[in-house]
Amino acid sequence: NQIPKLALNNNINLQDKFMISLKSVGHLKMMDILDGNEIEKLSFHHQHFLDIFQNELYPGIKSKPTSISLNDISTLIEVYVLLNKKSWMKSVKD
Predict the structure, then answer these.
(1) Residue-range domain boundaries for the chain
(2) Which of 53, 42, 44 is nearest to 76 (CA)?
(3) Which residues of the chain have pLDDT under 70?
């Protein structure tokens, strides 16, 4: 939440790939910190991570084939596992 406020007072490009990655990592770390019983908070950070992933990191992913880095795929899997940290096997479909 503090990054947009900092951008107002300083010359920070929020569309920079590094800044976008920092936002997504922030939500990932929050999910890691939260307890498995805090479903609403986990869902909140999961949804924000997905929004950043789909709209900022890979903006055309829903409409055209897109190459995704292995690191980002790994992070995406980690986010789904963290969303289901109470029973992480639910995040893996048969």
Answers:
(1) 15-91
(2) 53
(3) 1-15, 88-94
